[in-house]
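FW: tagging you since you asked about this chain on Friday. Here's the raw sequence from the shared folder, copied in full. Didn't touch anything.
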Amino acid sequence: MNSCLYECTVSHRRLIPVDHQFTYRIFMFSLDLAEVGAVSRKVRGFSHNGRNLYAFNDRDHLEADDHPVREKLEKYLATQGVTLPSRGRVQLVTLPRMLGYIFNPVSFFFCYDEEGKPLHAVVEVGNTFREIKLFFLPSPGERMDFRLRAEKEFYVSPFSTLDTSFDFHLHLPDRRLDIRINDHKDGQLTLVSTLMGRQVPLTTKTLWWFTLKYPLITGKVILLIHWQAFRLWLKRAPFIAKTASPEKQKDVLRPHQSLTTPP
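HL: got it, structure written out here
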């Protein structure tokens, strides 16, 4: 089975305008999209499009509808001028719903051909307004990692300007997960983010052990985001409202009303 779990360390260090850093531990799912039904039947506590302790719902990714995630991903890839082979594998590193609640700061789609050669990656960035933006990372060629620097043009944090660029560096996940996303502005590195993990089997036993070790994981993530924002506010980091520059927020899926309501 290609599906697994990753026990991870998340680290952030903000360099500008104030120094601020933190590290915490979580776990993430790595799901082969062709195996989701089988995982649902095999692993107690996990369901596909149902209610359970953990649930992977198709509507939680890409467009907000109930079409299969792979189908929606193929539609998006077509807009980038590429076609996913019908028998090509897609591995999704993400957080599922827990007790019906979903919040994903970022998810990663890794696409392979029929022989297991890496083709493309798609990064799905989310924010606390439940918006999503996709970033397409082209073929790594002979390398074993994906790289892209792209203008953010997406409201992620009230302490980051919209003219910041993302610098993605994604190693192909195997026994280790190694993902780095840095922010740059005006030629300066402003934020360093890493997601490092070790692979463990996705079994009922492991899932329940991680549930005890990392309780209420999705709730923990959203709580920590607000806690760190509060700490930045105490440090008097400049605060940028989402409504300040709606015209700079582009290609957003599930747009918040601040982007759809005429001024």
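FW: The chain has a mean pLDDT of 93.
HL: agreed, and The helical segments are 36-42, 69-79, 204-213, 217-234, 257-260.
FW: great, closing this out.
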